[in-house]
Each structure stands twice: as structure tokens, then as C-alpha cells.
What does this fold into?
Amino acid sequence: MSAVLSLKGATIRFGGLVAVNDVTFDIEKGDLFGLIGPNGAGKTTCFNLITGVYRPTSGEIFFNEKLINGLAPNRICAMGIARTFQNIRLFQALTVLENVVIGGFLRHKASLASALAYLPPAITETSRLEREAMDLLEVLDLADVAQTRSADLPYGKQRRLEIARAMATQPELLLLDEPAAGMNPNEKEDLAQTVRLIRDQFGKTILLIEHDMKFVMGICEKIVVLDHGEEIAYGPPSAIRNDPKVIEAYLGEAV
Amino acid sequence: MNWGVRAVSIVAAVGFCFLIQTVSLGFGADIQRLIALAGLYVTLAVSLNLINGITGQFSIGHAAFYMIGAYTTGYLSIQFLKNSGMPGPVWLLLMMLAGAIMASLAGLVVGLPSLRLKGDYLAIVTLGFGEIVRIIVVNSPFDVSFFGVFKFFTFPNLGGAYALDKIPAIRELWLIWLLAVVCIAVCRNLLKTAHGLAFLSVREDEVASLAMGVNVTRIKVTAFMIGSAFAGAAGALLAHYETSILPSTFAMDVSFIILTMVVLGGTGSITGSALAAITLFALPEVLRRNKEPVTGGTFLAIVIGVIAAVVLIRWFQNEYHGSKNKKTAGYFASVAASAIVAFGLTFALNAIPALHDKAFEGSKLRMVIFAGSLIIVMLIRPEGVFAHHEFSWTWLKKVLRIKPKSEALAT
It folds into this structure.
């Protein structure tokens, strides 16, 4: 079976700093894949490489066997990779519903001219996107706040809205950057269920970055561990848990 | 969509334009000209709002697009109108199109650097662009050559620093206001659809828009092109209304006035931009007509009253924690109290001979009042008068707190 996403020796240097060094892993269809590592390990940089924010200095990134190195982020999103942001980046002045509609905008079929004249193609497309967005909000339990300004949402809901917005692009692969950051244990449990639901019901492949070990170990089936930009371990949670290199990276060298 | 309502509103809009024309014919030529210019400023402010408020690209070179439209079509009319044998209004429509096309091509050129620049940096580029356009016109005619070696062509004579005059006069007031109405309608339509949300998303967060698959490049360039097309069409109308245009008509300060209209009305609000355009354009013109002498004492009393009102309102805004109604009452009370103080002070201060004998002509104070009112609005309401709100009947009801009764009655 071919991989949905595969990184082959992906490397990026910023001047003298090698932020991500020779990282290689494959994500199969339907995987719930974790990317972990201590602070500054290069996890988010890795996301930025995959989503086209940065262009890798060397190495290759394939999405469904197509090379996506250095494509514009919007092109990559259109191919089927959507992401959330570690530091929440919602469209703050817009409502929850509007945020999700923008996620679906790349599937709109009406021309700009018909929008400027407010003609039926644009009207029906807009209401179709709104309906789809509403359905997604139902699934993610945000329907009751659809008309609220996204900046006014409580933190946990903002995180969920980020996921809803990314889901609205109807991606094949969903990248979640620290979805559980700042959540309390109850919210984390809810989130874990949501993530599983997205994978099982919507058939998405998920790659997530997370600091919370319990969360990652409980939810992910395969994990890559980064430290100082280097890939130090790759395998199922049980193997990662006992890997001496991982323990060293997190807890420091054994005395 | 309700086609009936739509047809009625289109008819009403066109009717409104003709009404303005009919009403203004009752006034003298100077008032007519002001009504025409006000319509053009509405177009300019609303079209800049599309670039600046809705798409979030900080542009302060809007007068350049206005200028391109005016000079292009003025030149074309001088050259070709006589021989074309077309009726005035048809030719004017054609010229509006020509002005719009030229200006939107210029918008494309300015839109491209905006792909790499943001905020202040983009503002400087657009400012520079505005000056470049003006200086090209001031220096016309000139030869375009490669270091004086190969001469490509001669840039046409656009009157240089003097006026481009003898433009055939085609004065269609209704067309000027129709352009304003169309500009408002286009922006409003855009915001009602998913396309509009994409424009707003670029303003809100470019990185996130890109990650959501929004083609940010395309949206920025489109915004510049649409916005400048309207400014270009307005320029065409101006050229044929004034019959003589000067580079200084389109100097930097015009760009700033248009920008002020957008910011003061509430960045992103079409209603705000349109109303601020009319108000800010009318304010100095109305004040200009005031020939009454104002004594030093009265002036000082009014200044003190205004400062007192601003201070009190700011206090109610920031320090007073009461219900919304009480706050609103507080604002009115502040204004009333300051007015009474100012009124009292008028008598007291005018009793001082030095203040009483020094008098200004009212019209001379117009720019002071203009500048002062801008400062006051920005102090009391920095988000602009309308903030991000738009006028709609539901919004009006919400503001006036009228509960929708019609639903209960209908069922």
C-alpha cells in the first residue's frame, strides 16, 4: 500500500541552524500519526514544510506520490492537506460559520462576476457552502455558536473551530498542531473522541503534534519523535515509550 | 432570491439618481457641482474601502487611479469626441469604461508589489505610485527613450503642470450618482457571498487564508483592480464635468482625504465610507459659506466646551460602569453640560475686550473645525462611526431596540 504522505530526508536550514534534519517517515491511509518531541525539536517547522510555508533545503515530500516541495500553501491545501495552527489563527472578526465557509471556499464553483452581481450561481453556491459548514459544526458540536464572532469563543471552542475550518477544505490528510494545548482533562477527552471520529467516520488520515504524552500515547497508532531537528525514534507507542533515546531527549541523559 | 424586491430596488436606485439630478437642477451651478463632487467622493471612498477595509491592503494612492481615469478619458475626448458623432451620454459611458480599464491596469501594477509587502510598507509603495503618476503628467509631453539613444514614442501632452483643458463638457449628474450606487451595490453583493468572505479572510489572517486554500495573490490583485476601476470611472466623470483638470486636483492630500473617509466611517463598512464621504466633503463646503464673524471669546468658549464634552464622554466610556442605557444617558448629559458651560463662557469671555474685539470670519475657521472633528471622532470612537456595521433594516431595529413585531402578527 502506498503512503499518503512521505517525507524522504526532509531538511531545512535557517542560516546556520538546521531546524529539521533528514527526517523520513511514511503515513499510510487512515493512520492516526503522532509527531512529538521536546520544545524546539522542529515539529511545527516540519508542519510548515509539509504545508508549503517553507521550502525544504533538501529532501523530498510526496503527497499521494506527487512531489509537493515548494508548492504554494494554497495549492497544497487544494490537493488535500489541511492544517490547524498551534497559536490559534482564526479569522477573528468573522463569525464561526463564516470561518468554516472560508474553509470550503476552495470548492466554490461560482465566478467572481456572479458574486459581484449577486446572481443565482453565487447565491446557491454560498448557501451550499453554508449548509455544509453547518453540518460540520453539528459534528464538532459548535452549531449553537455558529453566529458568534470567533474571537469571542472560549479557548477550547476556538481550538475545535480550527479543526472544523480545516475539515471544511475536505482534506485527505489533516495536520493538527497541538490541538490539546491549554485544555483541561475533560476537554482533552472530548477532543480525543473528536479526533477518532474524524478518522473513523470521515476516513481522514491524521498527523498530530502534541506535547501531552498521555494524550498522544492514548490516541496515536504510530509516532515519530524529533529532537533538535533529528528523527530519533519511529514506531508504535509501546516501542516509543521504552526507547532509551526518547527518554533521554525528554528527561536528560542518564546519570 | 426575491427577484421582485430586487427589481424594485434597482428601479428605486435609478429613480434616486434621477431625483438627485432633478433636485439639483433647481440650484445654481456651484451647488450642482458640489452635488456632483460628493457623488464622486462616495465612489472613491467606497472603492477604497474595498481595497483598504475589506481586503486589508493599506493603500494611500487612490487619487492616482482617479487621475489616470480623468486624464486618459479627457485626452481621448479632446482627440476623438468630435469625430465620433456619438451622443454625449453614450460617449461618457464609453469613457467611464475606458477610464475603468486604464485604472484597473494600473491597479494590477500596484497590486503586484502588495503580494510581497504588508501594512506600512505597502502604504509607502502606493504613496510613491501616486506621486509617480502625478509627476509623469506634470512633465508631459516628453520623449520615452533608451538613455536618449532610441526614441520609442512621445508621451502625449497632458497639459503639464497647467490644466488639461477644453475637455468637452458632458454633465450627467445622474450618471455620477449611479456610479456611486453601482459601486456600493457591487461591494455589498460581494460581502453577501462566499467570495466576500475570502476577501475578508485575507484581511484577517493571510497565513491562515493560504492554509485554507484561499488564493491570496489573486484576491489582493482583484481587489486592487476592482477598486481602481471604480476610481478610474469616477475620474472620467470628473474630467467631463469640470472640462479642465489639473495635476494638483489629484495631489497626495486627496488620497489622504479619501483614506480619512474610509477610516472615519469605519474600516470595512460600506455604509460608513459612503456617509463619511458625503459628510467630510460637505463639511468644509458648508463652513465656507459662513460669513458671520466669530469673536475670539465665542471661539475660545466653543473650544473649551468641545474639550469638556470629549473628556466627559471618554470618562463615561472608560471609567463609568453602568448599564448601557445609563452610559448613553451619560453621553447626552456630557454634551448638554458642555454646551451649557460653553454658552455661559461665551458671555463671560466676550466681556473681556481683548477677546471680544478680535473676530474671525467664520469661513476661515473651516479647516480648524474639519481637523478638530476628525480628532474628536478618533478620540471618542477610534473604530470609526459605523465600525464594522452595515446599514440594514434589521440593524436599524436592533439599534433602536424595536422588537420584531411583524413575525407575531404574521402568524
User: Anything to note?
Assistant: Confidence is low (pLDDT under 50) at residues 404-411 of chain B.
